[in-house]
Specification:
The protein is an alpha/beta fold. It is built from 14 helices and 14 strands.
Length: 390
């Protein structure tokens, strides 16, 4: 799974990325700080199964801290986007190319309105303009892919009796778009699966496919300096989360330096040792103006929202010993996997390893000790033993 961090220059994208990953990312107060994409590992946070099973776990592919399981996902912070990106303006071509494999996008918006459409310092800029232009740019990117090749698609389908759906899949193959997503976009836009589409039909399909294949949530960043209350004005109109990436980064770095005890997504932290004046002032500000007002910095909430609310993932724990909830080496709840909601037991088997999937004959729900078959629909938090043929 890959999540793209997107937005115009100078809105805090690289700060958001670093706060998620603690990876080194160049952060500066000028446009196009990010030239090459920053790639790192972020984590979604859930209650670990060890919590309700009253066990001490030994994670392998993930982390467990205070009975909270942190599961890794790939995060990419791409070059800032400006209007006209689909035509190559700014770093548009690179921006769009870097997003090809993203499953979903987090759009970082300067909700304070202190940067204009180019990412330059400004006053009273309307952040809703950024929300609209970024979606427009990606929509037009999808449209351009089809429009420039439409005559060729029609010719192949009509003259060579090609399959129209497969032609569309081929056009978007480099963007990680599936045949099911193509079919869903055709259905939801009320079109027929034949090549007799008008330009408007192509545009409607392309825009629909973008929403399905690259869904977006909005991080209303710099909410701590939102003097115009832009967040309150827009929160009911868009799916957005109030965010202060600078506060999250400060907390993560303080935690890394063992100044405080803090888990990403928490509403509070505990001071572990004496602070200097600058540290004390910064943490008091975060406590009062961020955590006190919003209950969180919003960064972890963005990651969780895009994975669980938008991409509809669940967490499942495969084990080998259903009595001890462990693997063959005795590690308790060693792995946690993200799977799409609606996945079945064989899907988990294939996720663990192709050979295990191919040899799947059944499974055991370790919580109930009941045997389950290939049609069992996995639930969030399931602990599953996979049964295979020899």
């Amino acid at each position: 799974m890959e999540i793209g961090i997107v937005g115009k220059p100078n809105v805090g994208k690289s700060t958001f990325f670093k706060a998620i990953t603690l990876a080194e990312a160049e952060i500066a107060d000028f446009p196009f700080t990010t030239i090459k994409p920053n790639i790192g590992i972020g984590y979604v946070r859930v209650d670990c199964a060890c919590r309700d099973l009253n066990l001490a776990c030994n994670p392998g592919n993930s982390l467990c801290i205070n009975k909270n399981r942190f599961i890794p996902i790939k995060v990419i912070d791409v070059a800032g986007l400006v209007p006209g990106a689909h035509e190559g303006k700014g770093l548009g071509n690179q921006f769009l190319d870097d997003l090809r494999q993203a499953d979903a996008l987090i759009h970082i918006v300067d909700i304070s309105g202190r940067t204009n459409e180019k990412g330059e310092p400004s006053e009273n800029y309307n952040p809703e303009s950024d929300i609209k232009f970024l979606e427009d740019e990606i929509n037009l990117w999808f449209f351009d892919i089809l429009w420039k090749n439409w005559n060729k698609i029609q010719s192949r389908v009509k003259c060579e009796e090609g399959n129209f759906i497969k032609e569309l899949v081929g056009q978007f193959s480099g963007l990680g778009i599936s045949e099911n997503q193509i079919k869903r976009a055709i259905k939801e836009t009320g079109l027929e699966d034949n090549p007799n589409w008008s330009e408007e039909d192509i545009k409607n399909f392309a825009f629909g496919l973008m929403g399905i294949s690259k869904p977006i949530i909005i991080a209303a960043n710099k909410v701590d300096v939102d003097s115009k209350n832009n967040f309150e004005k827009l929160r009911d109109k868009y799916q957005m989360i109030p965010t202060c990436s600078e506060a999250e980064l400060a907390l993560r770095q303080a935690e890394k330096s063992e100044l405080i005890e803090y888990l990403p997504g928490d509403s509070e932290f505990r001071i572990l040792r004496e602070l200097n004046e600058r540290q004390d002032t910064a943490l008091k500000f975060i406590t009062k103006d961020i955590l006190g007002k919003f209950g969180y910095t919003g960064v972890q909430q963005c990651i969780n929202s895009v994975v669980f609310d938008v991409l509809k993932q669940i967490v499942v724990y495969p084990v080998e010993n259903e009595n001890k909830f462990s693997d063959s080496k005795g590690n308790v709840l060693p792995d946690a996997y993200l799977l799409p909601d609606g996945s079945k037991a064989p899907d988990l088997a294939y996720k663990v390893h192709t050979d295990i999937g191919e040899k799947f004959i059944g499974a055991i729900d370790c919580r109930t000790r009941k045997k389950i078959g290939k049609d069992y629909v996995l639930k969030n938090g399931d602990v599953i033993k996979i049964l295979t043929s020899r």
